[in-house]
Each structure stands twice: as structure tokens, then as C-alpha cells.
Amino acid sequence: MLEINEIFGPTIQGEGKLIGTPSIFIRLSRCNMRCKGFNVNYKTPNGELKKSCDTYYAVDSAFKNEWQKLNSKEIIKVVSKLEANPKIDIVITGGEPLLYWQNDEFQKLLKYYVEKEHQVTIETNASLDIDFTEDYQKKVLFSMSVKLSNSLETKRKRINIDTIKKVFSETSNSYLKFVVNKSSIDEIEKEILDILKNIENYEVYLMPLGSTVDEINDNSKAVINMAIKNGFKYSDRLHIRIWDNKRGV
Ligand code: SF4
User: Fold this and answer.
1) Cα of 78 to ligand 1 centre, how many Å?
2) CB-ligand 1 contact for 37 (6 Å cutoff)
3) What is the whole-number distance in angstroms between the Cα of residue 37 and the centre of ligand 1?
4) Residue nearest to atom 6 of ligand 1 (CA)
5) Tell me, what DSSP letter sits at residue 115?
6) pLDDT of 64-103, one tens digit each?
7) Measuring CA to CA, which of 113, 161, 168, 183 is 20 to 30 A from 134?
8) What is the CATH number of domain 2-243?
9) Distance CA 242, CA 245 (A)
10) At what angle do helices 213-230 and 185-196 cross, to 10 degrees?
11) Per-residue pLDDT at 249 exceeds 70
12) Mean pLDDT, the chain, as a whole number?
């Protein structure tokens, strides 16, 4: 069984390399981090005030009564009712979906959509160990949003160079995505370059930190300048601009 936070779409991918591409999202619950530095304040169902990222409802087990345990067949059935075209992209996100990499139902889901020739993206923080043992796994695109010190997680927990290298060597089109805020941009630039010195043939996207349009606008110019300076690409966050970060669109 997989713990599912939400399945929604059809919509468009709001960020990263496939921005604007029609997609259905399968959001898995649980994460190995909390990323309090992303500064999203929220209230748990029992009224506790906490801070995390903008998908806190998929991360914090205080919301587990809202999560559903589904197997791959049940997930495929829900998705099939949403499919606006037979080859729509499937985005597996979280929380941290690679917590389920060893789960048979997770692998069945990947295999099903890859064999049906959907583009499958896994949105991951790339901090967990994984192995590629099957050909279909190598056809998945990994959007690796590696966390930096602005997440307030420890470096040991955030950075797993072996996994990043493995993804780049076993898959094609996978990429790194970093969330950048202008207030600590020099420090962040150093951190990113430090990670990249251990990796060959990477593709990097930078995104402005923020869960509101104002926060994104405040950070975006500095992030664009950093992208130009280093030969990285800029990714906007369309879901925030268009839907104000509302769930399920
Ligand atoms: S790794 Fe991603 S999903 Fe997990 S807490 Fe951090 S930002 Fe949220």
C-alpha cells in the first residue's frame, strides 16, 4: 500500500524543466525532512501551530487522517478518471516519494506508466539511497530539488552526492532544482557550486523561494542574475502565480 495525500489534475506542471506540460499529480505522503526554513506557518487538525514547507499537509503525520492507503491498481483507477489525453504526463510528488522506492506497489506504478509511454517525473529531494535494477526505472525523469541550508535541515541529511550521481548516470533528462532567496544568495551560490563540483554533466534550474506571488517577485530578479552568471536555467513557479498555491490545481 502507498500513503496517498492527493491525486489531482489534469493541470499543468508549474515549475522545472517541463513547466507548462499537461500533467496529473500523484502526491505521496510523508517526508524525511521538515524544511522549517521555507517559512510556511500552518495549523494542524488539533490546532497546533507549526512551520514547514508549502506541502506541510503531505509531510506532517498530524494530517494522516486525510491520507488514503491505496495500491497501484486503485491509484491507476483514480488517475484514469482524470486523464484528459492518453499520454498525459504523470508526476509523482510528495512529501518525499523515494521513501517508497522499495515498495512493490510504487514500482508497479512506475512500470505501468512507463510501459504505457507516459512521461513519468519523480519530484524528489534526492537525499535517500536508491538503486536502479530495472530498465523502466531508467526512463523516469527525476526532478531533484536538493535542499540547501535555507531549508534549515542539516547538510548530512540534505546532500546525498551518490544518489545525485546515480540518477544522472542511469537516467536521461533528469535535472537539479534549487530554491534560492536573495537574502542569502552568495552563501547559496557557494553551496550549489560546492555540490556541483562532485558531479559531471548536470543540468540546473534555479527557482525563487516563496509561497506567494509577492515573495516570488521579491526573489526572482536576483535568482535570474545568478542563473545567467553560472549558466543555469531559471524556473518560475506558475502554480503560485496562477492559482495562488491552492491545493489540487
Ligand atoms: S523535502 Fe520537500 S516536501 Fe520534504 S519538507 Fe522539505 S520542501 Fe517539504
Assistant:
1) 25
2) no
3) 10
4) 35
5) H
6) 999 999 999 999 999 999 988 888 999 999 999 999 999 9
7) 161
8) 3.20.20.70
9) 8
10) 50
11) no
12) 94
Residue with cell 509531510: 59
Q: Does residue 147 have its Cβ closer than 6 Å to ligand 1?
A: yes
How far is 218 from 11, CA to CA, in rounded Å? Answer: 26
Using the atom order of ligand 1, give the atom closest to the CA of residue 94: 3
pTM: 0.95
Contacts of 207 (CB under 8 A, 6+ apart): 15, 16, 177, 178, 179, 180, 223, 234, 235, 236, 237
The residue whose CA is least distant from atom 3 of ligand 1 is 95
Residue with cell 522545472: 16
Give kind and range of the element (H or E) at residue 207.
strand 204-208
Is the peptide bond preceding residue 208 cis, with omega within 30 degrees of 0?
Answer: no
213-247: per-residue pLDDT in tens? 999 999 999 999 999 999 999 999 998 888 876 77
Pick from 179, 158, 191: nearest CA to 237: 179
Cβ 28 under 6 angstroms from ligand 1: no
Q: One-letter amino acid identity for 83?
A: E
Closest CA to 180 of 156, 135, 149, 154: 149
Task: Spell out the domain ranges in the chain.
Answer: 2-243
> Is the CB of residue 204 below 6 angstroms from any atom belonging to ligand 1?
no
237 lines ligand 1 (CB under 6 A): no
Instruction: Give the tens place of pLDDT for each residue, 54-74.
Output: 899 999 999 999 999 999 999
CA distances, 238 to each of 12, 92, 145, 226 (Å): 9, 18, 17, 20
Contacts of 149 (CB under 8 A, 6+ apart): 37, 155, 184, 187, 188, 191
